[in-house]
Amino acid sequence: QVQLVQSGAELKKPGASVKVSCRASGYTFATYGIAWVRQAPGQGLEWMGWISAYSAYTNYAQKLQDRVTMTTDTSTTTAYMELRSLRSDDTGVYFCARVFNSPTSGWHYFEYWGQGTLVTVSS
Amino acid sequence: QSVLTQPPSASGTPGQWVTISCSGSSSNIGSNTVNWYQQLPGTAPKLLIYINDERPSGVPDRFSGSKSGTSASLAISGLQSEDEAEYYCAAWDDSLNGVIFGGGTKLTVL
């Protein structure tokens, strides 16, 4: 069965960086992409971007592209999301999700999700 | 402010039929497919409907999706208490070159 297991909660100071991991199992890692979605406390879902595990192609949300980097390690079937220059409004739960992407068909959806990682930014 | 507009709340009694709307524009719903996610309290979102009206295996056929023009809808028939959750629509936006989510609709089963 497909599983995405994320790293544990993080507490960071403003200005620091955080790197969250997402270990995938139960499928051929390079066949799909990994997206990152975050959720501020009591708020809705916000797409951060995605990475193709096959080509390492990345596509970041415009508001985050200067501060975020997504990578994958195919040898360990793990995806990573690093967010730099953290601010208090970066506090929230960060989810990874397996992406089904077919741009010619206009299909792009998140089939399986990790359990989420709480990132708290506080001085 | 979300680019996809959903009502903030919806409600119904057990057994009722409920719909949740999702309004977008030509750059998102109008030219790409719509997906719906269900988020139970304290848990990760779950794919509920994909490519407008397809259900993943394991999702009851009480849930259905539709799309017309720049709007989409999620319908739930035979409402059950376990359906109480937050529901999000999502679509690719060609102008933003990324995925956009609706603001979410909190469904209450009375």
Task: Write a brief structural summary.
The complex is a heterodimer of chains A (123) and B (110). By secondary structure, chain A is mainly β. Helix content of chain A is 0%, strand content 55%.
Report on this structure:
- The complex is a heterodimer of chains A (123) and B (110).
- Chain A has no helices and eleven strands.
- With 123 residues, chain A is mainly β.
- In chain A, strands 2, 4, 5, 6, 9, 10 and 11 form a seven-stranded mixed sheet that branches. A four-stranded antiparallel sheet of chain A has the order 1-3-8-7, with no helix packed on it.
- Chain B is built from no helices and nine strands.
- Chain B has strands at residues 9-12, 18-23, 34-39, 46-49, 63-68, 71-76, 85-93, 98-101, 105-109.
- In chain B, strand 5 and strand 6 form a beta hairpin.
- Chain B starts with 8 loop residues before the first strand and ends with a strand.
- The model of chain B has no long low-confidence stretch (mean pLDDT 96).
